[in-house]
Amino acid sequence: MMISLGEIAELVEGRLSGDPLLPITGTATIRDAIAGQITLVDKQKLIPQLLKSSASAAIVAEGIEPSGLPFITVGDVHRSFAKITTYFQPPRARGVAGISPRAEIHETASIGEGCDIHSDATIGEGVVIGKRSIIHPGVRIMSGCRIGDDVTIFPNTVLYENTVVGDRSILHAGTVIGGYGFGYETVEGAHRLSAQLGNVEIGHDVEIGSGTTIDRGTYGPTTIGDGTKIDNLVMIAHNCRIGRHNIICSQVGIAGSCLTGDYVIMAGQVGIRDHITIGERAIIGAQAGVMSDVPAGAHYLGSPAMPEREQMHIFAAEARLPEMRRQLKALQRTVDELVAALNGKSQQDAA
Amino acid sequence: MMISLGEIAELVEGRLSGDPLLPITGTATIRDAIAGQITLVDKQKLIPQLLKSSASAAIVAEGIEPSGLPFITVGDVHRSFAKITTYFQPPRARGVAGISPRAEIHETASIGEGCDIHSDATIGEGVVIGKRSIIHPGVRIMSGCRIGDDVTIFPNTVLYENTVVGDRSILHAGTVIGGYGFGYETVEGAHRLSAQLGNVEIGHDVEIGSGTTIDRGTYGPTTIGDGTKIDNLVMIAHNCRIGRHNIICSQVGIAGSCLTGDYVIMAGQVGIRDHITIGERAIIGAQAGVMSDVPAGAHYLGSPAMPEREQMHIFAAEARLPEMRRQLKALQRTVDELVAALNGKSQQDAA
Amino acid sequence: MMISLGEIAELVEGRLSGDPLLPITGTATIRDAIAGQITLVDKQKLIPQLLKSSASAAIVAEGIEPSGLPFITVGDVHRSFAKITTYFQPPRARGVAGISPRAEIHETASIGEGCDIHSDATIGEGVVIGKRSIIHPGVRIMSGCRIGDDVTIFPNTVLYENTVVGDRSILHAGTVIGGYGFGYETVEGAHRLSAQLGNVEIGHDVEIGSGTTIDRGTYGPTTIGDGTKIDNLVMIAHNCRIGRHNIICSQVGIAGSCLTGDYVIMAGQVGIRDHITIGERAIIGAQAGVMSDVPAGAHYLGSPAMPEREQMHIFAAEARLPEMRRQLKALQRTVDELVAALNGKSQQDAA
Which end of chain C is more exposed for a tag (fewer CB within 10 A), N or C? Predict the structure, then answer.
């Protein structure tokens, strides 16, 4: 497949600097681009890398003007680049999957119009699914779940009883929503499981990454707010209330009954102990271990976590610890000598 | 649905203080309760929260006497509250699922009476399943596995060859039991996989959380002791021997050939290096990295982990590190001046 | 089943010291061996443990000569021991599974000769699978994937569109390859998902552990090099380029766009921030948090990670921190007294 640079400029409604007849054979990022391909440059600092690459042209943001190769200036580099990439690799036509005869749908379930329910999906008693939702193969939706419109649930994901999923949410493969909360009381040497009468309620426009697990509440719901994005292999425990538009990166673990405000960000591998409240727009750095409440807007780091500013001072001091230790020893020696000398002198004086 | 407070007191065999005719419409925890609902108070310190809530009544533990709203005193608050919650949300009748014609069961497999084997479950050659066990949709039980009585295996869980599961154990969705151990020998630049001849043996009354993985032993079994509870996304490597009644929280990783005694507790995101022994009733704090054996009854914290008491002193000192660094610098200056002054003085004296 | 020690020596072509007629009933590792069983000793230091065990004989490496029980000396202890173990527990005949009528295979998919496609597997549009590959039950291979020869994909694993898997690679149960990358741009308060036009390309002889997730690239591929071994519950984010023959242990998390050289080793629970380059043969210690590039051959430890040597000094100093703090306080007191004394003396002198 081939298209001229001028046609690409038209496709993305961009401003072309260079030869409109130059043939372009595909797209690639800077590190992969070969001759004939167009790449993208969204930051000024990438220009040296671009000039060393084999790319034949670039889509650039306003104000970026690489010399030495033709470029197309656009308002939204990523949108435009995606459009061109899609031109070269058009997605397969989705086809009309509809409801597979190999899906198992309980007679009491209600499926909205335009849904795709793929083979080997299992839809339980009393489940309600809205319009145009896609349920991939091997998804298990247990009794009483309610799924909104335009939801996508990727293969082999499991929703336990009474899970709620809002409109336009995306659940990636292998996620497990609504398993039992990990709460026990020890009675005569055995751990007795707590009540498991709650469920999980996921808002609208939520995305949940592959292999993530969210446990049901004890008596009420565990909730995920609208617009929140959760990465792969995250664990959210029973009774948590996650706010709206949170960003929760991979392998984060949030223990039971935590609350987060809106627009909270947690970087990878963060751990939050149980019953913690995290204020809106707080940011928790990677691998932090949060042991106490975090105020709104605060940046926390470290394990145990503390305000970023304090933690950075501590990190800096830790890096100097061996030096501090040597200094302390040397100082001790000097002071010991001083004391000895002065004692000696005092004795001399006294003599 | 509605029921009077007096009827609720009878249901839970509790002692009512307040109007027996008060109508109750449902249950909720304190933070969610609306007017008409009954909530629960298991700790004295929750009374202020209760009084600020909209709950119309409370189930309370012996000795807790909130003023200003009716309450029912019971011996076991959580049992009683669960009973009332279940009254308002009766579970769906389980129905008699029996053995689904859509399950694939090898002709040599033996299924005990009263089992439910759901659709799309796969039961391999020579598998033996006890009585009244429930195998949910999409569970894969490979050849030679032995499953006890009253076991529940939630959807899409995978048991590799020869896995053993004891009576009354619960395996949550998406767990993987018996995958290959991660052991390699490097031969001529390539990593050669070790023998994978062992299996996994899970005791009685064990619970395993969603997405957890337990690898098979090299030549013999990896074992999980009776009564041990394992949370979501935990990794237990080949040849481990986990004791009885352990509590292993989410995202813990235990490397190969570790041993734990009975009643060990590991908090979230703990990592244990290979070939470590952890004594009975030891407690390992969240995110700890255990690099050496832990004695029975010890509390360990930190990475590298050490006894909690020592680690708490170190954490406290770390928080003061920037201050210590300033103090050290100031002290150095003072001592330098002292030395200079004394040298000057000595020279004066000598002069 | 029983076999004489002499026959075992013949089976493994080893050198027997002891009674060739001794009957052997099975194999077990030292800690499990009972009378009648043969065990293995691959390190000199295990001899005391061997002598305390109930094993009746041992397979030993050249140069290890336990006294007090018969032994067989061999070149490769583990190979030999695996051979004997397999003699006692012969694997089930694999049978000719072929293509199950219960698998769902798209009419445009191409399946090589000698493949086993088990029941409930789903093979999408245009998928190409090489020769002798085994696709277990419940595996979902979405459209456009290309799978090599002699590949094994264990149950319930999911491959998103256009995933590539090289020859002889093994994917364990419940892994998810090719899910969306976790990249967002915040537009008017909502997080907008980045382009998801790339895929995942896995090389030859790669092994991927249970529950691991690898996300697709934004525009191009996320790649895993030939011979690389990845343990359970690992997360590899979009656009990463993992080198050849890497060893990536359990619960490691690698953020977007990282590069690793060949023969890199990462121990358990390591976290790598985005856009990091790790040089060939670098080793990253358990739970390390890598925030900057790591040179080839370096050993890094700690969070934030730094060269092992420096980090070990810091760990040592941290362990002494409470002592340093006491020393610093005492020193401060001494110096304060010195200063006071000297000031007093000066005043005396001046008087």
Answer: C
